[in-house]
């Protein structure tokens, strides 16, 4: 179970979401990477886990049009491309941060 972030900041001119965790660590997640890692059923086959989203079709200038909390366990993001079914749990964000760190 991932901890609840202590701070979230959408930095549009850098195209990333900055997440601060209770242990003091701060991660920077590029918007385009996050959109490509969307865990929703229209982006990932829920039975096979295979990604059905074509990441090559994500616009380079994608940004979150709206970010809201889904309870205390996740973020719901509506993207500038109109996609709004993605719920990013803290676990998802932790995992995406690891992918971002390896880029
Ligand atoms: Zn999705």
Features:
NE0471 N-terminal domain-like; 2 helices; about 15% helix; binds zinc ion
Structural notes for this entry:
The protein has two helices and six strands. With 103 residues, the chain is of the alpha+beta class. It has a domain at 7-51 and 90-101: NE0471 N-terminal domain-like (2-Layer Sandwich). It is globular. Bound molecules: zinc ion (ZN).
How much of the sequence is in beta strands?
Answer: 25-35%
Give the overall shape.
Answer: globular
Total beta strand runs: 6
How far apart the termini lie comes to: 24 Å
Note the total helix count: 2
Question: Taking strands numbered 1, 2, ... along the chain, how are they ordered across the largest sheet?
Answer: 1-2-3
Oligomer: single chain
Stretches where pLDDT is under 50 for at least 5 consecutive residues are none
Structural class, judged by helices and strands? alpha+beta
Task: Report the helical percentage.
Answer: 10-25%
Mean pLDDT reading: 95
CATH architectural category of the domain at 7-51 and 90-101: 2-Layer Sandwich
Identify every distinct bound molecule in the structure, by name, code or SMILES.
Answer: zinc ion
- Rg estimate, integer Å: 13 Å
Class of the domain at 7-51 and 90-101 in CATH?
Alpha Beta
CATH third-tier fold name of the domain at 7-51 and 90-101? NE0471 N-terminal domain-like
User: Biggest sheet: strands, sense, closure?
Assistant: 3 strands, antiparallel
List the helices and strands and how they pair.
Blueprint: E1 7-11, E2 16-20, E3 26-30, H1 31-36, E4 64-70, E5 74-79, E6 86-89, H2 90-101
Antiparallel strand pairs: 1-2, 2-3, 4-5, 5-6
The protein binds zinc ion.
Residues 38, 40, 42-43, 83, 85-86 line the site of zinc ion.
């Amino acid at each position: 179970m991932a901890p609840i972030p202590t701070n979230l900041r959408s930095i549009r001119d850098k195209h990333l979401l900055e997440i601060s965790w209770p242990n003091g660590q701060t991660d920077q997640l590029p918007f385009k990477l996050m959109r490509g890692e969307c865990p929703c059923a229209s982006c990932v086959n829920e039975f096979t886990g295979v990604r059905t989203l074509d990441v090559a079709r994500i616009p380079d200038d994608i940004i979150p049009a709206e970010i809201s909390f889904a309870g205390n366990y996740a973020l719901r993001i509506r993207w500038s491309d109109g996609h709004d079914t993605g719920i990013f749990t803290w676990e998802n964000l932790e995992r995406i941060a690891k992918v971002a760190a390896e880029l």
